[in-house]
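Problem statement: downstream parser choked on a complex file, so we are re-checking the raw output for the iron/sulfur cluster run. The parser issue turned out to be on our end (a line-ending mismatch), but while we're here, posting the original submission so the record is complete.
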Amino acid sequence: MNGLHKIVENISLDKLRIIIGDRTLYVWGAGNQGRGITRVLQDNGIDPVGYIDASPKMIGQKISGIKVESPDIISKLPVDDLFIIIAVFFYEQEISDYCREGRLVQGKNFIHYSSLKPRDYSIDVSGSCNLRCISCPRASKGKVKPPGLGMPFETFREVIDKIKIEDPFVGNIQLYQWGEPTLNRHLPEMIRYARQKGICCAVSSNLNNNNIDFQTIIESKPEWFRISASGWGEQYEITHTGGRWNVFIKNLERVAMLRKEVHPEMKVELYYHLYKHSIGNDLKKFHNLCEELSIEFHPVYAYLISLDDVLQYKEGIPLPATAKEAQCLMLLDLEDGLKIAQSEASLPCDAFRSIHINADLSVSNCMMFFYPEENRAVENFLDTTIDEIMSIRRKCDLCKRCMKFGIHRYCGVYSTYEPDIDTLIKNE
Ligand code: SF4
Ligand code: SF4
């Protein structure tokens, strides 16, 4: 099983300088990973001249003064003068193949960022959520905690300091996974501290709280602000269960306005979950609204985000009632998704490289699983070295059960289907 977890050579900063020499450096990937690694490189006196990205939305943009080029740039530059660091979470293999077709040699002209940064980190600073979305394990098992709890700021500092010692190339982290980060009132201080340490932060919010001080959060300069929605008006509240449309829409407009006034470089993206009830005119209205507010619009087919439930289902345990409700609304069926995932069971797991630290400092074996049972690698991140954590995770039974059914590929299956917006708008 461990053969399915990628093994990477770890390249030091000094070795990287020697490999690059005086060649022109590009970072492939203008997303979270690319921006993070760029920040670390710049902090260490290595300056990429540009990003490369295949997304038409990104090409031509400037991110902190660095231009995003299309992949065509490769054919326009002399191969011997070029060095690329591929910094993407998905499609690493496809991009490597593209580079090889352009006569670039792995190790000489390009490397994967995982050779520099073998691990990603997510810190669930809140540990609680105010919604109970039916596709989420919180709908069936989560317990509501009052807002304001979560990881203390001092603890967060220690976590960041340890990460920087153990993984100096870490330049980006996400401050969420199963929690609503804005419920932690220390969020702005946390973002500021991470930035001081050369780490860009991604936050995600359901925007369903009237009492969040978005101004202070955005002034602290998160790099990335991710929002999710599904449906317009009352329809929104079906799968963003417990949410209130009026609060959401007011906060969405506020975040867009604050981005413009306070932190224009912050990437704001709206993940629009495509269900049977959220296509047609609702999809069109959201698409138009995002254009109006200059928010990146990403429609994605909805899936069950609780891999706990998906795994149990494959093992013969029925889905919880809430997950069944979500299943009935999905456009790409659970069974079809599982069949494709099973066919990819022999491929590596991308999630294994992610270290997920919970608000109580415990570390999960896997960030994609929510329930703590069988999913606690260690109780305290601060007391355990990263090598020990990885060693424990490599022996984890949960991974064996998950990989048997290819469930480690399940979420990726849904992101590989590019939705045809025009058709889905016509399909009411
Ligand atoms: S999907 Fe996100 S917003 Fe919805 S309940 Fe789960 S953690 Fe909360
Ligand atoms: S449990 Fe998580 S880390 Fe392990 S194989 Fe499955 S998705 Fe990957």
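For whoever reads this later: Residues 9-115 form a domain with the Rossmann fold fold (CATH 3.40.50.720).
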